[in-house]
Amino acid sequence: MLLNKHFNELRAMLIYSIAFAFLLPLKSLLMVRKATINDLPQLAVLFDAYRVFYEKQSDIVGAAHFLQARIQNEESLLFVHEIGQVLTGFVQLYPLFSSTNMRRLWLLNDLYVAPKFRGQQISIALIDQAKQVVIQTKAFALSLETAKTNTIGNFLYPRTDFVLDTTHNFYTWTP
């Protein structure tokens, strides 16, 4: 009788584990939403970690102020991924315009998933949301730039149908 009880518990755990393994990627795709001011405490921590990844000094308060301004002034579109009430990642898009194409263009400027949530297709879900914005706004394209040393991003973006532009040079001027 005791053996039967343990067998049933193990069988239930195995079934749950298998179902969880197959459903997690699907669930991840369904938990992307537009960020709000209420997300700032968690979002600022994620944004700060993103900046630190790019070798910037940690500044959570500054991150919160920066993101608050973007949201309140509607200067960017910010989407978050959450599991339960925990933000796991975000994507930030900035609107641009293409004069030669005479259409809107979106810049995928920031994409980040907290390290402990990586490998669950969350970044793909966030990119898919960004692509939906492009389609819904009838924009020309979704562009992004990443460091050559960003091995994760440089592996991810071609997998999500981004094409590396090898025909243009990008220059930066800073005062």
The tally of strands reads 5
Structural class label: alpha+beta
User: How many domains comprise the coordinates?
Assistant: 1
Which term fits the overall shape?
globular
Number of DSSP helices? 5
In CATH terms, what is the architecture?
A: 3-Layer(aba) Sandwich
| CATH topology-level fold name | Aminopeptidase
Poorly predicted runs of 5 or more residues: 10-21
End-to-end C-alpha gap: 78 Å
Topology:
Layout: H1 2-29, E1 32-34, H2 40-53, H3 60-72, E2 77-83, E3 86-98, E4 103-113, H4 122-136, E5 142-144, H5 151-159
Helix pairs in contact: 2-3
Which characteristics define this entry?
175 residues, alpha+beta, 5-stranded mixed sheet, 5 helices, 5 strands, globular
Concise description?
The chain has 175 residues and is of the alpha+beta class.
Structure, explained:
A five-stranded mixed β-sheet has the order 1-2-3-4-5, sandwiched between helices. 17% of the residues are buried. The chain contains five helices and five strands. By secondary structure, it is α+β, with helices and mostly antiparallel strands. 45% of the residues lie in helices and 21% in strands. It has a single domain (28-159), classed as Aminopeptidase. It is globular, with a radius of gyration of 20 Å. The N and C termini lie far apart (78 Å).
